[in-house]
Amino acid sequence: MISNYDQELARLIQSLYPNDYVHASFLPKPHHGSGPIKAIVIGADPTFFQDGINGTVDKVFGLEQPDSQFFRGVLTNLEQIDLSLDTIYVQNPVKNYFTTETSQNKIWSKCASLWLENLKRELDEKFDRSVPMFVTAEIILKVVVFREYLKGIKNPDIYHRNIIFSPKQNYFGRKVIPLFRHFNYQLSAWPDYADFIKEQL
What we know:
Blueprint: H1 4-16, E1 21-22, E2 31-32, E3 39-42, E4 49-50, E5 53-54, H2 72-80, E6 88-91, E7 97-98, H3 108-126, E8 133-135, H4 138-144, H5 155-161, E9 176-178, H6 191-200
Parallel strand pairs: 3-6, 3-8, 8-9
Antiparallel strand pairs: 1-7, 2-6, 4-5
């Protein structure tokens, strides 16, 4: 169920960025696994295109279909660390659609900053803060983790040096673990990092 907070914030973003916002009759629902939840997985926003037209999904990452093409790479990584769709909660920090995909969206970080408090409230209502958070892209990491803890760190450093971010280093007060969906960071190519993550769960 979409909260009143989410609906109000979507309307606010529509008023602030009318040329970038795409109206939809509903916002995607989160995915809530059927078993004990061992981790939270955070995407970016639900925007995608079919034949040049904005598409919509019922759940984040299109997870109304368990074999969703949008989540396939993430799920492959999760399986490397013994997680599954049954043991994760999946949500986007930005819940509305845009006219451009995340990597090309110049206002994404500003909108994400507006949405963060809603997501923090949602997660704290559902899960103890001992449940860690995986972030699936660098752009998300940059709004979740406080800037001073990212200075001088590049994506390969995270995987080479087994870097995660403690609760005091990020907005959500949880352990934040980078788990990028980009093919360069598939965990099958980073076994030491995969083993390190397993120790955190």
